[in-house]
């Protein structure tokens, strides 16, 4: 079991994460603290859980080989090499293409969840964190590409894990993504096809989620694209905002 009383933050350079109050987290972040991800379990991304993202596919969802919209969550894994924390510098593989900045609510599992019902799914949640689910822009939907989604640093998490009791309604949180030089991108968890509880129930119907695992709620449609040199901030609800920046690949022309 993974129990969280308040906030959890893992400062860069410290061997263990701290469980502290919101005010202390605010002071540390205001002083420029860099952080590791607040959790280290498996991370599962979710595709097509945003109503606009599914609608944007139009008739393509009825074409072969699938011939219908997905009946179960479409998941992919963000492996450990993708994990990065608050104030990380993420390499852009190809600056002409850039990197899509997907801001997503990270649902952190508190106790083993296997075939749980939607009615009691939230009892299995320890808390929530901000996840920047990054990818190289591409068209593949049903078959998420490892090459595009599993680059080093392509899953930025944090800066803090916020206990479930501090998030009154995870299905009604504003999402704001600021990419330097671009208009703010705004979305909401309210546009999700599956609520947090429904998503947990549907996923655990076919796989077990363990304490410390992270299940993302999914990336809103139309997420912005960033390039080398850009600074990014992602805020979800009242949780501490996640900040990081993009940098050019070594040897790449600027």
TrEMBL record:
GO terms for molecular function: hydrolase activity. The keyword Iron does not apply. Keywords: Hydrolase, Metal-binding. Gene3D superfamilies: Fumarylacetoacetase-like, C-terminal domain (3.90.850.10). It comes from the Bacteria. NCBIfam families: HpaG-N-term. PANTHER family: 4-HYDROXYPHENYLACETATE CATABOLISM PROTEIN, ACYLPYRUVASE. This is Fumarylacetoacetate hydrolase family protein.
């Amino acid at each position: 079991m993974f129990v969280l009383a308040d906030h959890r933050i893992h400062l860069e350079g410290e061997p263990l994460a701290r469980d502290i109050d919101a005010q202390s987290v605010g002071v540390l972040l205001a002083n420029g603290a860099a952080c590791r991800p607040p959790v280290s379990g498996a991370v599962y991304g979710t595709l097509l859980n945003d109503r606009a993202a599914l609608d944007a596919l139009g008739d393509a969802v009825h074409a072969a080989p699938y011939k219908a919209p997905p009946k179960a969550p479409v998941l992919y894994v963000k492996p450990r090499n993708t994990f990065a924390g608050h104030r990380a510098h993420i390499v852009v593989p190809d600056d002409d293409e850039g990197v899509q900045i997907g801001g997503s609510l990270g649902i952190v599992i508190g106790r083993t969840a296997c075939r749980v019902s939607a009615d009691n799914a939230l009892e299995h949640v320890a808390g929530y964190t901000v996840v920047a689910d990054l990818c190289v822009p591409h068209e593949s939907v049903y078959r998420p590409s490892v090459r595009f989604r599993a680059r080093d640093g392509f899953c930025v998490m944090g800066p803090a894990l916020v206990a479930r009791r501090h998030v009154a309604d995870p299905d009604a949180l504003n999402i704001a993504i600021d990419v330097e030089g671009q208009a703010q991108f705004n979305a909401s968890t309210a546009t999700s096809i599956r609520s947090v509880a429904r998503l947990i129930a549907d996923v655990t119907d076919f796989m077990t989620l363990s304490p410390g695992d992270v299940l993302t709620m999914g990336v809103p449609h139309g997420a912005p694209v960033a390039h080398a040199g850009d600074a990014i901030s992602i805020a979800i609800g009242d949780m501490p905002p996640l900040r990081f920046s993009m940098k050019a690949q070594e040897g790449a022309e600027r």
